[in-house]
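Re: your question from the hallway

Yes, I did run it. Sequences:
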Amino acid sequence: MAEKKPSFEQALERLDEIVRHLEKGDLPLSQSLSLFEEGTKLLTVCSKMLDEAEQKVVKLRKGADGEPEELPFEDEA
Amino acid sequence: MQRETLTVTQLNNRIKGLLDMDPMLADVSVRGELSNYRIYPSGHHYFTLKDSESSLRCVMFKSSASKLRFRPESGMGVTAYGRVSVYPRDGAYQLYCSALVPEGTGDLQIAFEQLKAKLAAEGLFDPSYKKPLPEFPERIAIVTSSVGAAVHDMIRILGHRWPMTKVVLLPVRVQGVEAPPEIAGAIRYANAHHVADLIITGRGGGSIEDLWAFNDERVARAIFASEIPVISAVGHEPDVTIADYVADRRASTPSNAAEIAVPDWHEMRESLESYEIRSRQAIAKKLTQCAQNLDALRGKRVLRDPAVYIDDRRIELDHMRDRLAAAQDRQLAEKKQRFVKLGSALDAMSPLRVLTRGYSITEDRDGQPVRSVQELAAGDHVRILFRDGRADCRVENIEES
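Structure:
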C-alpha cells in the first residue's frame, strides 16, 4: 500500500472534515476557497477510485516456507 | 434320563450361544433412561438403561463412545443401539451399545446446547469481546470451500458493492471430520500472516450435520482468538451455529456477510455527491456573505460618491476657519481690554494726574524737574506747572528744611 496516496477511507474522512469546516462558515474567504479546492480534488480522487476499482481475487496457499503464496482464483464450480 | 451336569462356564456359554443366535437381539434399539453412567479410565462407558419396572446393563466401548456427539448423563432419556449378549464372567446379559441418541432432541442438538453453555460460561460470546468491523476493508479473507455457490456469491457481491477490496480466499473443507481443524487453522494462519483486515468464514446451507463444523469447539476458539474481526456466515437465516455466537458479527447467509463486510459503491457515490453539493453550497454561501459585506461597504456614501466626502471636508474646513477667526477676534478683544486697563493704570501714574490733586511741578530753565532746593539759587528763573497752566517765577530766597 502506497504511503503517498491516501486510502479511500482517509480521503473520505478528510472530505468530511473539510465540508464540516466549510459549512461552519467562520473561516476567512481565502481559507474557505483553498479548502473548497482541496475538497474538490478529494472528490475527484474518491470518484476515480470508485470508477477505476477492479476487484482482485486471489487464492492463498501456504508456501514451502510457510509464507502465504497468492494464486489466481479460477472458477472451480 | 441322566441329567448332564454343566460347569458354570458351560452354562453361561450355552445361554450366550442361544442369545447370539437370535437375529433380533443382534441389532436392537431400546429406549430408556440412563442411570449410573460411568466412564472408566479405559475409555469404556458403563451404564444402566431403565424404565419404571426394569433395568438393563449396558456397555459402550471406547471406539463407539468416541463417536458420541453429546455427553450422556444419568437421568437422560435415550435410545440405545447395539446387540444383546452375555458376559460369561458375570453370567449376565447386557447391551453392547454402539450408539446412543438422546430422546426427543437429536444428539447433535444436545451437543450444541452443551458446547454453547460451556463457551458462554467461559465468556466467549461476551459482547465486550466483539471487535468493530473495518468500515472500508482493504483485504477480506474468505475461509470457506473454494467450490460451491457460497464462495461465488460472496465474491460476486463483494465485487459489485465494493470492488476496491481485495478478496483473499483461504480454501478449506467445510464438512467432514477434517473441516473443523482446517477452518480453525485457516483463521489462525490469516492472523499469523496478516493476510486481511476482515475474515468471513462460513458455508452455504445444508442439514445440521453439514453445518456441524461450525459448531466445533476448535472453530469457535479460533474465531474467538482471531485478532482480525470475523463475520460468520453459515447456512440460511434460521441456522445459528456456535461460530455465529463467537463471531464479531453474524451474517444470516454468505451473501449477507458480503453485504455487511463492505459499503455499497452506489450509496458511496451518492454520499460523495452529497459532499459535493454540501461543499458547493457552503462555498456559495461564503461567497454570497462576502459579496453582501462588500455591498454593505459600497453602500456607504464615501465609496459611492467621493465628491461628497470632499464637500463634507470643505464644509468642515469652513467651520474650522470660522472658529479660528472667532478665536482670533476673541483674543484681540482680550488684548484690547488689557491695553485699556494698562492705559488707565498708566494714566493713574501720570504726573498730570498729580497736578489735578493740587500739586505742582517746578522746572528749571532747561525744562528739567527740580527735585531739591539745592538745585536752586536765589534769582533763578523757574517755571511752575499747574493742572491748568504755568507760571514763570523768580526765586527770592532759599531755605533748606
